[in-house]
Design a protein that fits this description.
The protein is an alpha+beta fold and 113 residues long. The protein is built from 2 helices and 3 strands; from the N terminus they run ααβββ. The chain has one domain. The chain has a 3-stranded antiparallel β-sheet.
Length: 113
Amino acid sequence: MNSKSALSLIEEIIMVLVFAIATAVCLRIFVYSSDLSEKNDVLSHAVIEAGNAAEILKSSDGDIEKALELSDGDIRIEPVDSGSEYLGKAKITVLNEGEEVYSLSVSWQEGVS
């Protein structure tokens, strides 16, 4: 009888160990998915911010100062030489905590009323 109880105890210890390992793996996966979801939220927000800044820049006829004033968030707009007097170009960069998250090149037609 004593050997049966010892065998049963070993079996229960092994089952607890397997469940503990499975729990640790599941927790790691949940933490990873949470981090990934947060990064995707930041990227999605950055894409929307860059698109909004591009539309503001186009509607303000390339006035970078006005576009920066009307834009929300941490955005940098740099003019780019287009090689033509009729084409305006800029690079819009969205930052999050000082790091570049998303960059968008935008062009608009200039000199047309």
